[in-house]
Write a structure and sequence with these properties.
Length: about 55
């Protein structure tokens, strides 16, 4: 399941974060980061998924 979340985090970063932590501050931060730049959104999403195993 973690591999699927990482793949989703690369394709759609907010979706990967949502599956890991739900609609919290990390989700909204990731939405903003993804809007500002796709790469920061990916990095944050992978970090959140790895941190919350």
């Amino acid at each position: 399941m973690e591999l699927l979340k990482i793949i989703l985090a690369i394709l759609l970063p907010p979706l990967g974060v949502f599956l890991q932590v739900g609609l919290g501050k990390h989700f909204w931060l990731n939405v903003v980061l993804t809007i500002l730049g796709y790469l920061p959104g990916i990095v944050h999403a992978v970090w959140v998924i790895a941190k919350n195993k």
